[in-house]
Amino acid sequence: MPDFANPEFWVAVAQIIAIDIVLSGDNAVVIALACRNLPPHQKRVGIFWGVVGAVSLRVVLTAFAASLLGYPWLKLVGGLLLLWIGVKLLLPEGDDGHEIQGASHVAGAVRTIIVADFVMSLDNVIAVAAASRDSIFLLIFGLAVSIPLIVWTSQLIMKLMERFPVVILLGAALLGYVAGGMIAGDLVVREWLQQRLPAAHYVASVAGALFVVALGRWLALRRAPSDYPVV
Asked: Of 105, 56, 90, nearest to 171 (Cα)?
């Protein structure tokens, strides 16, 4: 049973919510695009059932990913992948856009939302699974809190990210922090690190955050046009 009085529980919940907010902007756009051609009275129905289907699928996938992280090497590999996801968050976006066809009926819109969310949610699944700290209850609780928040405030969140790029920077740093702790917790390296480095988990977490921010900003400066605002 989770300890609701433990501050670490609520820190992990806050991490899950923050990760979902940072990584789910594209998913909110997909929902809007998939339902754009529906009649006004059907848009809310399409959005509701699309979100229900996408969230249910994501909970199952994330729980599956979290269950696998108890095996040797998987946290290490997942942490390295999460580091790159954090770095990629700081890089200039391409001009490809979202090639999402607007559906003319509710079932088509719901199907589009679920399929697109499944394809786009790998980064989200890995990050949230890492932040759940091997607790399925914490995983489901965090997602249950964060998903409605994203759906209701998606436009506001996207505007904040556009106006205050530091939000993206902090999100990338959070991914690096979670990734560093994830790597340090892998069975292959955990004991070795704990014997040689005091507070290895926290040191690795901070190192992961610094690594993501430093590498992400450096790559962004190299790739970006001269007029691109680097966060």
From this structure: 90
Q: Do 139 and 62 form a contact (C-beta atoms < 8 A)?
A: yes
Q: In sequence order, which ranges of the chain are alpha helices (DSSP H)?
A: 7-23, 25-34, 40-68, 74-89, 106-120, 122-131, 136-163, 166-184, 190-196, 200-223
The separation between the first and the last C-alpha atoms of the chain, rounded to the nearest angstrom, is 41
**Alpha-carbon dihedral angle through residues 147, 149, 154, 158, given to the nearest 10 degrees:** -110
d(CA 47, CA 37): 12
Q: How far is CA 194 from CA 190, 203, 224, in A?
A: 6, 11, 40
* Model confidence pLDDT, tens digit, residues 66-114: 777 778 888 888 888 889 888 888 887 654 445 555 556 778 777 777 7
Return d(Cα 163, Cα 99) in angstroms, integer. 25
Phi, psi angles (nearest 5°) of residue 73: 80, -25
Closest CA to 11 of 149, 178, 144: 178
**Among the listed residues 125, 159, 154, 121, the one whose alpha carbon sits nearest the alpha carbon of residue 142:** 125
CA–chain centroid gap for 146, Å, is 11
CA–CA distance, 152 with 111 (Å, rounded to integer): 21
Q: Which residue has the tokens 């997602």?
A: 143
Q: Write the pLDDT tens digit of every residue in 144-171.
A: 766 666 666 655 666 676 787 787 888 8
| pTM, to two decimals | 0.69
**Mutual angle of helices 74-89 and 122-131, in 10-degree steps:** 120
CA 148 remoteness from chain centre = 15
